[in-house]
């Protein structure tokens, strides 16, 4: 069997969820498992979180239906609401909660002839300008939903932060103030915080927190943070050395010979490439852990392989273990070298990499 595998630690997942809950002890926890739980397998992650999460959240109804088919029975919040009236019927049938972000969605729900009550959240645009009703329209929508007999009261008022990951928190404070002022005369339950809000903005925990990336052990913050450093990587992407050679000074490695040896060098070829989710944009110099030692990527990332300079490493042989990212080498570090973020690397893991679950 190909040695390329992603190990998923369900104990780490639970420990990260418990940390989110400890940071916001008075809030209910919405575990965000969209995009196949950020590449970690939505069903297995939701099962593992069943005691810690009050509800789950996904981006679309297909993701919610996948969880229901697998026997997940908790409510599931659709973060972009329903797409069309037919999804209202499915949501009613399956107890999917709706984060309503537009007047059209609010109207559709209000006009829908329901047999039971819906859990509807109202998303307010407080500055991100991506989804949500602006303050004026949100007031009218809130009035409509409050009067709607098939909507469970009180309606949760929600917003999403644009820059909660940044050390400069002015814009986040503005968003918090805007939501609080919108809610002043309503006194509704509120939900603001993604992972960055949970970690860095205590005043924004509200009634429902919505952690995503932190559940998977990757910090969303642009700067070091004590609580973020207590997160544990859930995914460890592993492979092995499948070839070893020594090349002379001046010899070049890989496609287009983009890296050339400035000394006689020992080159290890690893069975992982962009076809396995390792970013092709990772440049020479990106750290790779070979047999527990930090070595450096050299030359271009191929589809199925990478080459690593192990000249300064000890006891490297065919079959030596390799960590591309995980507990010892943060996915954010690799992402930083590759010009992207941990979210992207985790979320786009391709199906060819088996996910191996452990309870520890
Ligand atoms: C994805 C998402 C989250 C989770 O965000 P993280 O940064 O991964 O914690 C929370 N709320 C909404 C509306 C989202 O779309």
Q: Mind telling me the C-alpha Rg?
A: 23 Å
Q: Numbering strands along the chain, what is their spatial order in the largest sheet? A: 8-7-6-5-4-3-2-9
Q: What proportion of the residues is helical, as a percent range?
A: 25-40%
Oligomer: single chain
Q: What is the structural class?
A: alpha/beta
Mean pLDDT over the full residue set? 97
- The end-to-end distance, rounded to whole angstroms, is 23 Å
Please characterize this protein's 3D structure:
This protein is α/β, with parallel strands linked by helices. It is 28% helix and 22% strand. It has helices spanning 10-23, 34-39, 42-48, 61-69, 86-94, 103-111, 135-146, 170-183, 195-200, 331-338, 342-347, and strands spanning 5-9, 28-32, 55-58, 76-78, 96-100, 120-123, 156-158, 190-191, 208-209, 235-247, 252-253, 259-260, 265-270, 287-290, 293-297, 306-309, 321-325, 355-358. The strands form three sheets. It has an eight-stranded parallel beta sheet. It has a six-stranded antiparallel beta barrel with strand order 10-13-16-15-14-17. Helix 6 (103-111) runs parallel beside helix 7. The longest helix is centred in the first third of the chain and has 14 residues, at 10-23. Pyridoxal-5'-phosphate (PLP) is lined by residues 32, 34, 79, 160, 194-196, 210-214, 220.
